[in-house]
């Protein structure tokens, strides 16, 4: 379906932005402020910090690792159905977590179910936003993605108050009920492009002759919905109704046309060969990407930063309580401070990276260095105000996630963006999943967070050093960015949608 240029960069597109912002707000509010729930889970289930930390790490990492699957769902079924289904997953996972008998069940209900639902929301909202915007796409995506940070800021305080009023179980039930509003957000996501599921049906129908497609239908085959009159043979069907009505009969006709099992087997072998060729081409493209030293260095940097910098969002409240700096979570939790700082970081770094003389890779390395130093200072802090300042610095550094797509595009170009960004997200998700349990195990071993944060800070600083060293022109043999051709964006969102 062609997209009229008049439909882009305005009009209903801003309703899409508002709906997508609210979708990310509702889906990511609780997972991004899971640090408020973590002390309650420790008190309720009386398990080790390392085991309990798996809940927070899974809910943040599973969606990233499964991003290729989430993007494929959006490409095939469209943003609206996927958002509705994700609303059921997120709300159901949160409500199930209210009745979790142990931490292992929480790892499934909150970590995996809610995590996959959030991944689907993220893919759907970015895809539909890209479809409606071309020249203002950066601004639109910036507004949409800040929904996660704003959600974390508000949900951290809201969950704290709900726990005090209704307890942990009541809090999760109420948050789960709010997540059902994702279905309302999906109602605004009117598609501009027909999803791949319908396109495949249309392509199958077009292989038939015109006589087969428009042959006289039986009255029983064209039952209309309730409230409509029965269709007559002379009535002209729309494209979507035609696809849905004739699909089953069309498949039956194609099956009857087969001469025998020999031809069916031949077709199966042909399909298998085509799939093998496509798979081989995909593997070859992935191997070419991983042969780029700058790309490998960036993946290592993302992994080391995710492993070291994510745990503070989960443990920082428990750090304050275990050190006796505060008896309970404050009115504005440390998680909220980190979330709003991450929101500022996303917007600020996004503005800085558009300045031509600023190297995006070195800018990312600088945020890693700042975050690593802040992590090393956390064990030395003896005041709650100091923890608030350090939480803001680490949160601002976490805003460098807004640079990943830009840097990946600058390294490999737009043609290989789909595969390359999937690789980067896998390394990031893998680091997020491993980080909190490692920090929790350090505490279970030493009964102190000091060694854990020294490890995290050192790991992040090592990643910043390796990223800077491996991308230097003298070590790499080429400039990490400026030798790349300018990326020319168009109104086609195929590449951007698959990156969501």
What's this, in brief?
The protein has 500 residues and is mainly alpha-helical. The chain has helices at 12-32, 34-45, 49-65, 67-77, 79-97, 103-132, 137-179, 182-186, 196-206, 210-213, 239-257, 261-290, 293-309, 311-322, 334-353, 360-377, 384-398, 404-412, 417-446, 450-470, 473-476, 494-499.
Describe this structure in words.
The chain has 500 residues and is mostly helical. The chain has 2 domains: 8-192, MFS general substrate transporter like domains (Growth Hormone, Chain: A), CATH 1.20.1250.20; 272-474, Growth Hormone, Chain: A, CATH 1.20.1250. The chain is built from 22 helices and no strands. The protein has helices at 12-32, 34-45, 49-65, 67-77, 79-97, 103-132, 137-179, 182-186, 196-206, 210-213, 239-257, 261-290, 293-309, 311-322, 334-353, 360-377, 384-398, 404-412, 417-446, 450-470, 473-476, 494-499. It is globular, with a radius of gyration of 25 Å. The two termini are 21 Å apart. Mean pLDDT is 76; it is low at 1-5, 219-263 and 482-500.
